[in-house]
Amino acid sequence: MRVFHTPSSKFKTVTIRVYLHAPLRADMVTWTALVPHVLARGTRALPTLGDLARRCEELYGASLGAGVAKIGESQSLYVGVDAVEDRFLPEAARAVAGSVGLLRELLLEPARDAGGLLRGDVVAQEKENLAHRIQALINDKIRYAGMRLIEEMYRGEPFGLHAYGRLEDLPQVDAAAVTARYEDLIAHAPADVFAVGGDPALGDELAAAFGHLGGAGAIPAPAPGQAPAEVRRVTETQPVDQGKLNLGYRTPVTLGSPRHGAMMMYSGILGGFPHSKLFRNVREKASLAYYASSRYESLKGLLLVAAGIEPERRDEALRIIEQQVEDMAAGRISREEFDQTRSGLRNRLRSAEDSPGAMIDVAAEESMVGAPRTLEERLAAIDAVTDADVAAVARDVRLDTVYFLTSPQDGSGGSAPHGRGVEGASA
Q: Does the residue 227 lie in any domain?
């Protein structure tokens, strides 16, 4: 169990999240996804949402949260709390300590039925809620296309699974299975506690409250993998008005690599900002796309390109996208593109420091490869990147999969919709 605490007087609240990390596994992914939401429904002493709400009111408006995310190869569930800093409260108030205690109860003393299982009615309700969350992702065709790309790109690999799990698993889920999964996680899963705000003593308080957490299980080490000998090409038809063209590239550069800053610059120049090559050349100059962008999944060494296009212009859009990638590998990057991207990345890193939740998200990702860096260290890594560094990482980018979601009327054919839940996306 590790504690990562950033003391700060910048915020009026303290934000705390406790993570349990589990390897992504097809036979456990849906059960794990349910656990945090069931835990957030009540404790032994506060068994209902009404009881929890009253306790939060007593703690001067503390708020609780729970969820699950895919961080590299890990399915990481969390419960969290936001509490008002004690310095803004009456002298005798101990809202932060009370909130830490409440968080500990949620995680370690959940509400159970007379047989010792997590409550069956709560599990049933959260199964329905999870089904709605998965269905909402499927209905959002931009996100769905990104998920399907990763599912195809990592078919048969853990990374191809979505943190929310799969619809087809839900009929098999019951209170006994979720309870067993919860107890296994508490006993064996590595644990991390992240906190932003409060004074330095809070770190010791969190270590005391959660120090017995953290099993012997290892956090999975993400690996980039190899691109196939031939590019995978998948076309799927659904009743959509706008085609979704998504490309997945592999790179050996991951978070923790000395070249990570250069890869961030690469993605930013290619498609991370309005001044980027994809936005200017695919969307503005050629008028081919409603949107065109790139995103770098640094823990996996995955570069994602996404564009919304008229279905009949797929080949043209693909040609222009591939030309931008070739230009990057050839070092055809203007000084304006380079400088604006560095400035944009610096602003993006600084803006994350304005949100405790965003700070924890960044720290949780970096903790997978070591201790989280400071803002100054992240900025320095970007400032150190040269034109030659970007050209060097560009030459290591390899196209793996092209996925196209289009309407049946497009006439391009392709695989039928899977329609079996969500497998494969970054959370």
A: no
